[in-house]
Specification:
It contains 15 helices and 14 strands. By secondary structure, the chain is of the alpha+beta class. The longest helix has 23 residues. The protein has a 7-stranded mixed sheet with strand order 3-2-10-11-12-9-13. A 3-stranded antiparallel sheet has the order 5-6-7, with no helix packed on it.
């Protein structure tokens, strides 16, 4: 992600450090299992590999070999699948694309992430650790192709960074850059329709007024976009037929004491991972023992919480919103999360939660216009999922482009930035 952000500022002729500063973390995440095992994913791959060996007896060389394989897969896929359009035939003629095609057999497309990880590691805890990367785009490690094992490369080989003022610093920096480049923002101005004429973008309709534009870039979930803003265009029906990504249930807790045993990023693993994903994607409910992600930004930005206290972002994966009894599911999940934290930290958390709010698939759908609250549009629970994602343009319509998590190449901040990079190249071509 830092490389993409730096590149964006450089393209604009600006010095990134005038807008945005970030620093590497000493550890990408701390992992907890119910048997008492704790593994810290240290920034240096060798230190991380040794940590795994000490805590689980998985040989360090095995971990490093896995990360080297992940790096090779990334080298094959990055230029082809992540930073260029998959839907422009001309891209298939590029020399880098041809060389990558000759190495496709290395991408493990025809096996699942879990099967590949289980074959690589004998310890189920480390299999689970690397299986969790499927959730980075809302997918199921028991279904998604092992190609997604490129993700650990980005976290363990290239490093993990934290913006100086927290994640929203990225937004502030991009906003300030845009202002300096002459961009005009119109906040609280709801777009009602994208206007087309003779298969070309004509402009936008905002509050009943027609505004002329030659080019429109949308980062709205494509299902919402076609339904509300492009109702006259045929909808890509495959977007509704394929399995959607997971959503999330997030508790925002103010905690009136510090927990020194926790790091900035923490994962408390489920005791039955397969069962957890069965609930997420098959029964559309929440398992009795969900994996808990616990993020405490005040560890990196002390001003985010009062002195001696902490701000907790506590998230579990949740299914898409298909009309479940969310109030009951949320109450049940909250009890299970608190009990899990109590067991793992040997504490009584409830008296220390002094403020609380939450987000769930309903509010995520309402507030972000993400269809059914899915965080990443389509899941990658299919070996052809990359090709099923909506392109970054609409064939036959000039001047209309798509960015964001529901289109190619996928969700999450790095891939959303990559989609913007692709749109930039498409606009320049036109």
């Amino acid at each position: 992600m830092p490389t993409l952000v730096d590149e964006l500022f450089a393209l604009c002729g600006k010095n990134p450090t005038d807008y945005f500063c970030y620093a590497p973390l000493k550890s990408s995440c701390q992992y907890f299992w119910d048997d008492g095992t704790v593994v810290n994913a240290w920034l240096d791959p060798s230190d991380f590999a040794r940590e795994v060996e000490v805590q689980t007896a998985v040989p360090a060389e095995r971990v490093l070999g896995f990360l080297q394989k992940s790096a090779r897969m990334y080298d094959i896929t990055a230029d082809v699948f992540l930073f260029n359009s998959l839907h422009k035939p001309a891209n298939f003629l590029r020399p880098g694309h041809r060389s990558s095609m000759l190495r496709l057999h290395e991408l493990d497309v025809f096996t699942t992430m879990h099967k590949k990880n289980r074959a690589w590691f004998r310890d189920p805890r480390i299999v689970q650790l690397f299986d969790r990367y499927a959730t980075y785009n809302g997918s199921n490690p028991y279904k998604t192709p092992a190609t997604l094992n490129i993700i650990p490369h980005l976290e363990h080989n290239t490093g993990v960074y934290f913006p100086e003022k927290g994640m929203y610093h990225i937004v502030d920096a991009l906003y300030q850059l845009a202002l300096d480049m002459g961009v005009v923002f119109h906040f609280n101005a709801r777009v009602e329709r994208i206007l087309l004429h003779n298969k070309k973008v004509e402009g936008l309709q905002v509050a009943g007024e027609k505004l002329a534009f030659d080019q429109v870039v949308s980062d709205v979930d494509v299902v919402t976009l076609y339904t509300n803003l492009l109702p006259d265009l045929p909808f890509p029906k495959k977007q509704l037929k394929l399995e959607r990504s997971s959503s999330a249930l997030i508790f925002y807790w103010g905690v009136n004491r510090r927990f020194p045993e926790l790091e900035l990023h923490n994962i408390l693993f489920s005791g039955n991972y397969r069962e957890e994903f069965h609930h997420l994607f098959d029964t559309k409910t929440i398992a009795a023992d969900p994996t808990v992600y616990l993020f405490i930004s005040s560890r990196a930005v002390p001003a985010d919480a009062p002195e001696g206290q902490e701000n907790w972002y506590v998230m579990i994966n949740a299914p898409e919103n298909v009309g479940q009894d969310w109030d009951a599911l949320i109450a049940q999940a909250r009890r299970q999360i608190v009990e899990k934290i109590n067991r793992r930290l040997d504490t009584d958390l409830e008296p220390h939660i002094v403020s609380e709010s939450y987000a769930d698939p309903r509010s995520i759908e309402r507030d972000t216009a993400s269809f059914r609250g899915s965080l990443y549009g389509l899941s990658s629970n299919n070996k052809f999922a990359a090709f099923y994602r909506h392109p970054n343009f609409r064939k036959g319509i000039r001047g209309l482009y798509f960015a964001g998590g529901s289109v190619h190449p996928g969700g999450g901040i790095p891939l959303c930035l990559a989609s913007a990079k692709i749109v930039d190249s498409l606009v320049n071509e036109e």
